[in-house]
């Protein structure tokens, strides 16, 4: 009987402590400083590459983040190969983007394990004094520890496990941003694919991200100074769902629509 009482009291103490720290993480963790707050994120998905010792953007452009300067996204679009109208079809250099948006936070997610590329991007970030205005995602986050980093997919899976086992409130986190897709976005994509083939991997990803869509998790992370951004949302129903869950910001292909929604709901602050 004494052993059962001991186990019960231990489990009860663990659950209560975990719940307490989940709600008030500042009791254990110092809140991360936010150089900027991402509410409105204008999406121009693409990659960086190295050509002739220069850094260039892919033909799809860049992901840029802006709260009050969403009109500038058009400038980047006009520099890509997929613009409509105009004679300028150049692919922009990353330094061109930095020069055009000196005070605008930018999201750089390097998806290839290329040490040269990662190093050169890091050097450009430092050269243009953008360390405090860059969100950094790559396979070697240790290159420049001064740049805020994203959760990688393995770290997202770890985050998921920690949350559902109650261990998350006890574990320090190095990341400053969590960027995840809304599950409905994956579902819509899968619906198109199912006409031809069942993609099991897509369903697995959807299950993972559905488990992440928890207000308690979002609130805990934001209380620790970790911003939660949901992508890529393009209608008001999804905008509302994400903000109701406690997301810090939304990434969208339609900046004007999101801006008008945020103004209507008074969500700029």
Automatic annotation (TrEMBL):
Catalytic activity: N-hexadecanoyl-1-(9Z-octadecenoyl)-sn-glycero-3-phosphoethanolamine + H2O = N-hexadecanoylethanolamine + 1-(9Z-octadecenoyl)-sn-glycero-3-phosphate + H(+); 1-O-(1Z-octadecenyl)-sn-glycero-3-phospho-N-hexadecanoyl-ethanolamine + H2O = 1-O-(1Z-octadecenyl)-sn-glycero-3-phosphate + N-hexadecanoylethanolamine + H(+); N,1-di-(9Z-octadecenoyl)-sn-glycero-3-phosphoethanolamine + H2O = N-(9Z-octadecenoyl) ethanolamine + 1-(9Z-octadecenoyl)-sn-glycero-3-phosphate + H(+); 1-O-hexadecyl-sn-glycero-3-phosphocholine + H2O = 1-O-hexadecyl-sn-glycero-3-phosphate + choline + H(+)
GO BP annotation list: glycerophospholipid catabolic process; N-acylethanolamine metabolic process
Keywords: Hydrolase, Lipid metabolism, Membrane, Transmembrane, Transmembrane helix
Gene Ontology cellular component terms for the protein in this record: endoplasmic reticulum membrane
Transferase recorded as keyword: no
GO terms assigned for molecular function: phosphatidylcholine lysophospholipase activity; phosphoric diester hydrolase activity
Subcellular location(s) per record: Membrane
Record-annotated membrane-spanning stretches: 6-24, 156-173
Domain GP-PDE: 1-262
Similarity comment text for this entry: Belongs to the glycerophosphoryl diester phosphodiesterase family.
Protein name: Glycerophosphodiester phosphodiesterase domain-containing protein 1-like
Origin organism lineage: Eukaryota, Metazoa, Chordata, Craniata, Vertebrata
